[in-house]
Known about the structure:
Two copies of one chain form a homodimer.
Chain A: E1 14-20, E2 23-29, E3 32-37, E4 40-47, H1 51-59, E5 61-67, H2 73-80, E6 95-97, E7 103-105, E8 109-122, E9 126-138, H3 147-152, H4 168-172, E10 181-183, E11 189-190, E12 226-228
Antiparallel strand pairs in A: 1-2, 1-5, 3-4, 4-9, 5-8, 6-7, 8-9, 10-11, 10-12
Keywords (chains A, B): Electron transport, Iron, Metal-binding, Transport
Protein name (chains A, B): High molecular weight rubredoxin
Organism (chains A, B): Candidatus Ghiorseimicrobium undicola
Amino acid sequence: MDTNVLHNLSYGLYIISACNGAFLNAQIANVVFQITSNPPKVAASINKENLTYSFIKKSKEFAVSILEESTPLGFIGKFGFKSGRETDKFKDVNFKRLSSGCPIVLDNAICYFSAEVVEEFDCGSHVLFLARLSETGFIKTGRLMTYEYYHNVKHGTTPQAAPTFLREEIVRKGQKAVQRYCCRVCNYVYNPEAADPDNGIKPNTAFEGLPDNWVCPVCGAGKGQFEKE
Amino acid sequence: MDTNVLHNLSYGLYIISACNGAFLNAQIANVVFQITSNPPKVAASINKENLTYSFIKKSKEFAVSILEESTPLGFIGKFGFKSGRETDKFKDVNFKRLSSGCPIVLDNAICYFSAEVVEEFDCGSHVLFLARLSETGFIKTGRLMTYEYYHNVKHGTTPQAAPTFLREEIVRKGQKAVQRYCCRVCNYVYNPEAADPDNGIKPNTAFEGLPDNWVCPVCGAGKGQFEKE
């Protein structure tokens, strides 16, 4: 049974946020979708080990910022590959708190909504929170980031806690003749052909040609954390 | 509260199929997604009034064909805007039955999987079926149909039974100066600028210039069923 068929399901890329009093947290998610139209309800899948999960479990509220296509990898990495237990993810980020108390990220977001949890469905490693829309807003117009764009154009990677973590990074290995390097921390693959234009590195720059202070655009790890594929 | 923010969530376009003995049925769906990676489980949202729902409820099995970008509107309309109670949706369609008995559509599909239901979550008008992957297969390579492409490029519409039915067709009205016509049966909007190239109608063909035997590319209604927006 080839589970790679599941890579052909379509998703967007979102920041899900929640709070525990004054303590704010947020994480990247791709499994967010509308379930009913009347009343409008959404569902979001969250790994039980994530800090956001414990906040939502307690407060019964969460908020979602819908990201635009041009969102830098580093911004996604900040929310997707770090834990709110160790870092303040909202430091140096523009955000506002909604009436529910949940913070929504304004940087790189097209629009947002908050939702009140009406039911929790236990799915094993993840819980699906079914929630009723409570507040909405538009920030700007722009193209939406899709999961496909994140992977195929931005060369982003998937954390192990994500519902859609599969063998995709492994599958992608060895497709190109040019030497690529893989980040041992987050599995980001440095592809010399695409390079890292978000951070001023032009296409067709070999890994060896990167400046010494270059860091992984996703998780911030140094060059020494990379190894040949 | 502007529920139009929900139009910025991303989806694909799928055919979900099921069977009741020799009786086969299938429908279009956009809310299908992976929920856990180990073991790989997926969830699909189905309206309780749909025939597919009653089949899945009974057999605890369903299959999903993942559609390609070039899928004609009429093919989507056949599965999305007709009821299996009145028509045999598999007539003139290439399909095969999987070991579960579920039929999967081969036309316009990139790949498929079948899944065994392990849990049902009641969400009001819809039920989310959580299911464990049981069989998979690839049919061809190609670009995937996204919900955004279906709406913005193919000018497809959303049936009222869909979880994502909202005011989107209403929102879209009045955006263009050129006279557009709306199908009273399925809400498809004939846009003269885009016209209906799937059926040989070139861009910039006024509604009045359509041949008398032209029918709605989504639901098959005649020209007389259309009215000015």
